[in-house]
Design a protein that fits this description.
Layout (H helix, E strand, L loop, with lengths): L31 H19 L39 H19 L22 E4 L8 H4 L6 E6 L19 E6 L5 E4 L8 E7 L4 E2 L7 E3 L3 E4 L3 E8 L4
Antiparallel strand pairs: 1-2, 2-3, 3-9, 4-8, 5-6, 5-7, 5-9
Length: 245
Amino acid sequence: HKHNEANGEDGADGSDDNRSWNCGAEGETGDEAILGLRDRQRRNFLATLFCSQGVPMMLAGDEMGRTQGGNNNAYCQDNEVSWVNWDLAGSQAALLEFTHDLAALRREHPVFRRRRFFRGRPDDGGGLADIAWLTPSGREMTDGDWNTAYARAMMVFLNGDAITEPGPRGERVADDSFLILLSAHHEPLTFTLPGPKFGQCWAVTIDTAAGMAGEKDDGAQHLAGEQILLPGHSMMALRRIAAAG
């Protein structure tokens, strides 16, 4: 909940509708499990933002985990509550580097920066759509899957070969294809990568559980149909690559 006591309005100011979760403790804590989960959730939010279409909108300090101490209306706090402190602690410096790597990945891949809406179907009546939604088992989602209240995980396929808008000089734009694994479940969950029509081989480019973002030469690779155990409350993005050999 909000912590606006310092504003002198008896907590009546600021929104009461806070879509937030304290991860098990309200405010500061020394519990390493809670601190680790909070760090992972920060990376989840940032990674989701930078993998989404449209203009990424961030509040100054999000890139280093600034919290304002829970004050959601710090209009009158010209002090440590609202200042951006650049004397970064270890976890803050790591989050800033993670955000930098996310921004670089987005800049390098136009599939994350489309200016037109997805169609959700192949333009030529065959092949792959520009976007596909899959269950953790690797099959494409049905209407029933969308209406399953207990579902907490899914995969999203972004087709880099189906970008419809042209480049600045009218040229065709093509990019790598990506598969994004999302899990809001609290326990580890097994994902089965889809069949080879989506891609034969995949390289990990974002792993919020490991705090990794970017295209690494030594990044883990996975094959079509392979299973990946994703930790609870985490996200992974895979880039389609040519199969070795």
